[in-house]
Amino acid sequence: MSVALKYHPRLYLGDSINVNKLDKIKKRLESRPLFSGVFLIAMSRNPSDQLDIYEAKQLVQGYYKKNPPYVVGLAGNYEEALTLVVQMTEECLVHRGDCCLKEYLQCLT
Known about the structure:
Layout: E1 6-13, H1 22-31, E2 39-43, E3 51-55, H2 62-66, E4 70-75, H3 78-96, H4 101-107
Parallel strand pairs: 1-4
Antiparallel strand pairs: 2-3, 2-4
């Protein structure tokens, strides 16, 4: 099972994600997500939400093959993912004066 993930050009990475191994991590996510041990932060498809956090293991579900997530961050665990969301929110607040994360992240592309 392979998923053609889409990545934000300015990908937020947790401290446990090795930048030098990022390409290897991405390939593993796309080809063998059950073994990746990574949490994804992705743009929510739900208009009332901004971001979704979930384990990469969920990518084995058929839904994601047809609807690949737009990944804005990668973390080694859930707590680290929350830390990245806080970082994104703080940056958004400084640059925009609000917490409209979707609009802020789209401007960074």
